[in-house]
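Subject: sequence -> C-alpha cells, single chain

Hey, anyone have a minute? Need the predicted structure for the following. Not urgent.
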Amino acid sequence: MPEIRITFTGLIAIVTGLITTVTGLVFVLIITRILDPVDFGTWGVISIMLLSVLQIEPIVSYWTTREISRGVESAKTAIFANGILSSIAIVGFLIIAYLMGTNTDTDLQTILTASLLIPLIFLNKILTAINLGWKPHVVSYGLLVYSITQIPMALIFVYYLDLGVYGIFYAVGVANLASIILLTISGWEKIKNSFQKNFLKKWIKFSWLPFYPGVAGILHSYDVIIFSLIAGTVEGIAFWVVALLLPNIVANAGHVSSAVYPKLLKEGKIDNLQQNITLIFYFGFPLSAIAIVFAKPGLFILNPVYQIVFPIVIILTVWTFLNTLSTVFQNILKGTETVDLDEKNGFIAHVKSKLFLLPTLLLIQYTIYISALTIMLFFTHSTSSQFELLLYWSLIYLSIQIPFTLYHYIMVRKETQILFEFNKIIKYFFISLVVFSSMYFIIEQFLNYENNIFIFIPNVLFFVIIGISLYIGISFLIDDRIRQLILSVIEEIKK
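Reply:
Had a minute. Here:
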C-alpha cells in the first residue's frame, strides 16, 4: 500500500477543486447563456433525480473504500456488483421520470433519455471509491479530467450543434467516460485481482448499512421535486440551482481533509488532526468571502436574469460552510469506527456503531428539513412570489443545518479530544474580513458591468486574484504555520 499523505493529498484536492469549480462555472455559463430558465430548470430536476437514484450506489462503494484502505482485494467484485446496482437504479429513475413528466411542465421524453447516463455515473463512482482507498490524490485527477472535458463537449453539443438539454447529456456522458479511463488506469493494480463471491455475501448481508445513509440522501433530494410539484413549474429550480453554484466553491475547503478518512481506516489515528481542521477554516473563510463579495458579478456572468437571487447566495454560502464542516466531522467519526473489522459482529453491533448513528442523524435532519419546506410551500405558494419562496427555502435550509453541525463537532471532540484552535481561526477570519470587505467596496466603485462577458470576466478575475493574493500574503507574513505550509508547497513544486 502506498503511503497516504494527508496535507499533500489535501492541497492537491483543494487546487483541483478550485480549478474544477472554475471549469464547472464555465460549463454552467455555456448552458445558462443558451438555455432558457425552463430548459435549465429541467436539467436541474434531472440532476436531482440522478442524485436520488445514486443513493443506492454506496451499498458497494462504501465497503470498497474501507476494504481497499485496509489491503483487502475486493475491487473487481465491486465493479461487477456496481453494474447490477446501476440496472436497479435505471428502473427507479424511470418511475420517478414518469411522475415528474406527468405532473410538471418538463418533457417526459427528455427525462427518460437521461437514464442512459446512469451506468456511466455508477462506474465512475465505484472507480473513485477504489482509488480513494488506494491512491486518494488520484480522485482529484479524475475530477479534474471530468470537469475539463465537459467544456469542449458543451461547446460542441450545446453551443455549436444546439442540441439543448440533450447536448448536456452528451457532454456529461463523454466527461464521465474520460474520468473512467483515468481512474481505471490508476486503479488497475487493484482491479485486475480475482473475483470473489464472499465479498458479495458480505455486502448483501450488510447492504442495509450503506443504503441507510442513502435514505437520507433520497429524502434530501426530494426538496427540488416537492418545490416543482407544489409550484407546478421547474423555472424556480433554475434560480435555486444557480444560487447554489457560487457557494459550492466553499466546499473546496473540506478537500484539505480528503485523505483523513482513508488514513484513519488504514492506521486508526492521525497526528495533528487539529491542525488539519484549522486549515479548513483557513481556506473556508476566503472562499466564503469570494462567494459573497463576487455574487453579483458571478450571477451577472451566468445570466443577468439570475441576479435577483443575490441575497439567497449569501444565505446558501453560510449553509455550505457549515455543511462542509459537518461532512468532515462525519468522515472523521466514520474513519475511527472499527466495528466492521471483526466479521463476528452482526446486526446489533453495527446498529450500535457510528456507522449507523451518523446516517440516523442525517435522516432526522432531512426529515425536519423536508417537513418544514413542505409546510412552508403549502401555505405560501399561492400568496408569495417565486423569489420569496426561494428565500424562505434557503432560510429553512440554513436554520436546520446549524444545530446538527454543532452536534457533529461535539461528537468529534468527544471521540478524538481535539479542540478548535480559536486564536488562529479568529485570525484567519479577520484577515478575510478586512481583505474582502475592502474588495467589495473597490468593485462597487470600479467594476463596470459590461454586456460583453469576454471583457467582463477578465475584469472580475482580476479583482478575485488581488483579493486572494492579499489574503495569502498577509497570512504568510503574520502566521508561522501558513508560512511553513506555503514554503513546503514551493519545495514540493520544485521537486
